[in-house]
Design brief:
The structure is a homohexamer. Chain A has two domains: about 35 residues, no CATH class; about 80 residues, AhpD-like, CATH 1.20.1290. Helix content of chain A is about 65%, strand content about 0%. Chain A is globular, with a radius of gyration of 17 Å. Chains in contact: A-B, A-C, A-D, A-E, A-F, B-C, B-D, B-E, B-F, C-D, C-E, C-F, D-E, D-F, E-F.
């Protein structure tokens, strides 16, 4: 199989960046799987949070806080995050919220209805992102 | 002084457009109240639907169908429509879904949490729309 | 009552701004009619072009040049401009290209088909702009 | 004639909303002047911040903090905020950052160069917002 | 040649997903060629359409119907779809409409003029998508 | 290492496209490194500029001119370009302006503050692009 992106990263594994853990180079390739997405996300978040910019760090904390249960439950809030990501056409954000909605027990039929609202609101321009969202969902349903 | 939007409309009230009910001219002024929004929306929808373009008419039907209850209830779907409108920064769409969510029994605390997700996802660029959404909500809460 | 936009402008009509013709203040009110749109557009373009920024002036020249006939005729190019403005949801740009398409002989049925493509590509978020585009079209068809 | 926005507001001036100061209704009309913009902005911010949603309140605090001087000075950061608002085509955000940049001593020539970057990056779709930004600048330069 | 994406897919080819044909995993990698784009598009459309959400299925039908000849011919409508995709910066949508315009007989000079409108309307932010559109066009012109 | 994208290109290296230098096929794969980004950018720019569309060529010239020093220095203008690219969520544009800012002597702390403005203005939807911008920065800091 193609060594790809992470092979390059491994060749760099003895290097220490200016702050935090070893750096993944070649960051523009979109991740092929949920686990690659999670690995890159986790690495880069560490680097960003270790960089010491207080505004950025507080934003990340706020972004986490925002989905905690309140008047609305976390499942509903994650569905709000998913449809927002879909109409704004951000593949990585869609992947993240598909994962979180799945963890919160969103059913296949509920996913399809979230997708249908995003499609009607956002138009055919959303379709390529819907295809990738659907493939992520298939990937999750196949996982052991 | 320049005659305003509705003054102009009143002067035109005997006119019949090419299709459907009397036309509201000068449609670019943003509506000052929910009732003006509803009046303009209803008028123009009639004109558009009477114009006879099958693709447009089917889209409008689909847009209506999309929020009917299924695996998710109408209230949840309207909340999805509201947060999508907020992150896409469409004031008229926000007004419409604020109205619909209000009719479906969304509480003040639930509205604020929907707004908070839209704000964190969409950033400070959403704030002017949040102000107008909040003003719409105040207007609805004051209505008899 | 609060003096409106154009009342304020009239009160300022003896004033000379730093560059070019008299300034329209209070420019945030959306224009109520095509003639108001054209007046504000023409005034502000004069002020901008007289301000002496070469990059901006060249951009305006390029924007004009772009719709001149070539392999595609001006009518087709204006239709491309209109659908782009619709999916990007810019009311003033839609007004301008509705005017230009109308001058180039675009028929009501052709306008509706341009709108239908914009609606399907851009989704229900386009509908408020479609309503205003349709009202502009009604206004043009009523003009003597 | 149709009562305007602020006339309606004045009629409501004895009313107390659910939280905070008197509410401006009819919030969808775009403000005609910088002072109207500031009045509406200030009122609605009070209502929003008094509503008690911690995520929203923290976001507003972060939005304020973000422009404080650090490695970059406030003037530069406000210029970054202005060009971002211009390419995202948010008139109210543009108004706010034009005001702030003006307070920080940005010159007419510097404003024009910020506008030129926003215009080239964002394209002709930015032009209507550039016209309104320029009118705001004229308004500020005329103020006593 | 790089085994890549589709090698992974082939390893999965004995698997049956919950609904419809075999699933392509790893759906986030952008396709390297028009034929890979078409294969992924076709597979995922099958999965989506077999999932049984009526709103989504009707939207797909409407999206197809929208480009059928009417007052405007299919070639003109596909050009409208292409410029919309370009200003909305959706690479997959651009690929699809470049293919369809090519099938409808759009010439190299016509493509360049569509691109020029999209570039002027959408600004320099469109350039990376223009590069990829141009590479697609080169690929099609080289095909036997 | 993965043969990938450019291996395919090399196999095509004896071919001459309709205009200009040898064509890179498979243009949709996002570049894995800054040097790949630069190579693809340079190749496609040659093809585009050799295609002979005067509007496109003038736009490219204007895009270059826009960042030349004037009332604001080039470093400040490149920072404006970077934050615009970030809030518009264009990875290739972000890569380009990160490179240019780096050449103009932007420090790590200044980059983080530009990112913080883009993050607060554009919201959490910007985070995936911020991760990739940060990875580009790490890549540049590691270069000999």
């Amino acid at each position: 199989m193609a060594p790809s992106y992470w092979a390059t990263v491994n060749q760099l594994s003895n290097h220490q960046p200016t702050a935090g853990p070893p750096v993944r180079r070649s960051a523009h390739a979109m991740p092929d799987s949920v686990s690659e997405f999670n690995a890159f996300r986790s690495r880069m978040n560490d680097i960003i949070l270790n960089a010491g910019n207080l505004t950025i760090n507080r934003f990340f904390a706020l972004d986490h806080r925002c989905y905690e249960p309140g008047a609305l439950g976390t499942k509903t809030k994650e569905m709000l995050g998913l449809v927002s990501s879909l109409v704004l056409r951000c593949d990585d954000c869609v992947t993240y919220h598909v994962l979180r909605c799945h963890e919160e027990g969103t059913t296949r039929e509920e996913f399809l209805e979230i997708f249908s609202v995003g499609l009607v609101v956002g138009g055919s321009i959303v379709i390529p992102h819907l295809r990738r969202a659907m493939a992520r969902l298939e990937e999750l349903d196949l996982a052991p």
